[in-house]
Amino acid sequence: MSSISTGRMIDDRSDPVEGRVAWAPAKSVWITAMTLIAIVGGPLTFTWSAFGVFILLTAITICLGHSVGMHRLLIHRSFRTPLWIEHFLVYLGTLVGMAGPFGMIYAHDIRDWAQRQRDCHDLYAHRRSFLVDAFWQMHCVVALTHPPRFVIEERVRRDRFYRLLEATWMGQQLPLALALFMLGGLPWLVWGIAVRVSVSLTGHWLVGHFAHRSGHQGWSVDHVAVQGYNLPRFGLVTFGESFHGNHHAFPESARLGIEPGQMDLGWHFIRLLARLGLASAIKLPHMIAPREGLRRVETSGDAGDGHPVGQH
Fold this sequence. Notes:
Strand order of the largest sheet: 1-4
Strand content: 5-15%
Distance between the termini: 41 Å
Structural class: mainly alpha
């Protein structure tokens, strides 16, 4: 089947459907090890201070690192910031333990490319059952028979700091692990690394699973394989990432919680950077050319129903 190019994914007689799911050993062993340590070691080493470290580091790495640094800045370029801040935010995103910067760009863009086609592989669409999807997403990859050509922009590809993070992304936990052990012993180490990484990776999959299956849908995109849905009740704990229906509608927007009442802490952090003179060229929905086939959907029962797109 024919496909369309999207940004870094260039059509080369590509097929988003035909392919096989293959076990990814490094990815699988990594998440399995972290999860087992968390399940066994978490209860044995629990202290309230360790739990506090877990909450604090999870919030910092997910909000500032993954959501703002990796997703909104590095991947979508929804705002600009000085390079040293960009590097710091992407470093925090690497500490989430999901992948390095190039790996994150690829994982995001190949899924986005597939979902924008008329049809795509079940893994990219999260179509399979809960347990199958969990195994596929966290332990496997899709080996497409005819994948698109992946091209990262030269500035990012040549960035020495990003190349270092990409080559050592798992090892980036070690300096933090040493600091945690020195400050709080084994409890801080277990909760600040293993529990945090396993919860973050599992949470990322859960949001992706449910946000591509059903939920509040303020917007719909015609003629695509996968729709995005909002999960309003989880806006706070996902720092805005659960408003995935909004994100499908306006991918380049720095603000994900665009409807009244949608809590988006990542957006508030970007606003703080802007007030400090450290963020500019911030993109919002009313500044972005609408996606082809984008339609407003009026539904009932969830936050944001019937309201216009927030622009402030």
